[in-house]
């Protein structure tokens, strides 16, 4: 398999079981934030090379949202955590 | 009005041979199943309550989610036991999921052709279960005996799963038939 992701709930699985949902770094603005903040949150994305954080959905497994930290040049995976648990830990 | 119970692979299995081969895919008609989800903070108590239900097989799907499978004769008792668990939501899945039972000395080798789940006995002991991609559809794989696996897929994917596993099973002389 080309890319293996270690799901914290299901173990090592191939990328075919997942759906990549995009950049995990943007922070949702408050409901009364200015239009520019919302525009940036919804539409504007960096296209970085190297180490990135992405939201992955384990579609064919536990169906949980995960945060995958990986390198988009070398395909090295640094960490995979449950998105909800990571958010709880941060709060 | 009459409702007719039709199995999703009824037509595909019409021409199946009567004698099961060494490797056999049986399609039980009498399975009942439920999805069980634990409410926030109730996971440990729900796990305990599920383990205490007699005659029910509990399969792991993901955090705070399980698939409970049983034979239809004991379904009433299991349904009331599930409904009595505090802190859990239960959805009946009998018509939504289709169960297949794959047995035989080559069952692991056959399954390894269509799933990336680690089926090594050290990683997938008897009694273990997991959600995984199997024959290109999402399903639940459970190891119920040394060489026996139960695969549960959504009803609308059952025909696709069945066709593909029969094709992959040709090299092992896989037979298929309905079972009670
Ligand atoms: Zn998973």
From TrEMBL, chain A:
InterPro entries listed in its UniProt record: SoxD, SoxD_sf
Enzyme class: oxidoreductase
Pfam families membership: SoxD
EC number(s) per entry: 1.5.3.1
Keywords carried by this UniProt record: Oxidoreductase
Keyword Oxidoreductase recorded: yes
BP terms from Gene Ontology: tetrahydrofolate metabolic process
Coiled-coil boundaries: none
Molecular function GO labels: sarcosine oxidase activity
Protein name: Sarcosine oxidase subunit delta
Organism for this UniProt entry: Allorhizobium borbori
TrEMBL record, chain B:
UniProt-listed Enzyme Commission number(s): 1.5.3.1
UniProt keyword Repeat present: no
Pfam families: SoxG (PF04268)
Name of the protein in its database record: Sarcosine oxidase subunit gamma
TM regions (residue ranges): none
Keywords, sorted A to Z: Oxidoreductase
Record InterPro entries: SoxG (IPR007375), TrmE/GcvT-like (IPR027266)
Entry coiled-coil feature ranges: none
Presence of keyword rRNA-binding: no
UniProt GO molecular function: sarcosine oxidase activity
């Amino acid at each position: 398999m080309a890319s293996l992701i270690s799901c914290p709930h299901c173990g090592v699985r191939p990328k075919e079981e997942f759906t990549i949902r995009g950049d995990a770094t943007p922070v949702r603005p408050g409901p009364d934030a200015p239009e520019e903040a919302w525009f940036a949150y919804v539409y504007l994305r960096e296209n970085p090379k190297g180490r990135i954080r992405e939201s992955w959905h384990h579609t064919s497994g536990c169906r949980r949202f995960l945060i995958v930290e990986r390198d988009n040049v070398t395909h090295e995976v640094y960490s995979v955590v449950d998105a909800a648990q990571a958010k709880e830990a941060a709060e | 009005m009459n409702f007719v119970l039709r199995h999703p692979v009824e037509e595909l299995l019409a021409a199946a041979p009567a004698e099961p081969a060494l490797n056999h895919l049986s399609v039980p008609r009498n399975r009942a199943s439920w999805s069980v989800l634990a409410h926030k903070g109730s996971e440990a108590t729900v796990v305990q309550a599920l383990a205490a239900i007699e005659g029910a097989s509990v399969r792991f799907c993901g955090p705070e989610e399980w698939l409970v499978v049983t034979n239809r004769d004991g379904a009433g008792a299991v349904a009331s036991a599930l409904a009595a668990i505090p802190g859990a939501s239960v959805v009946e899945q009998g018509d939504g999921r289709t169960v297949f039972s794959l047995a035989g000395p080559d069952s692991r080798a056959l399954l390894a052709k269509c799933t990336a789940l680690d089926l090594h006995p050290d990683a997938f002991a008897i009694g273990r279960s997991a959600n995984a991609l199997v024959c290109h559809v999402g399903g639940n794989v459970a190891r119920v005996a040394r060489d026996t696996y139960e695969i549960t897929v959504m009803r609308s994917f059952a025909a696709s799963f069945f066709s593909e596993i029969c094709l992959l099973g040709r090299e092992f002389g896989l037979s298929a038939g309905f079972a009670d």
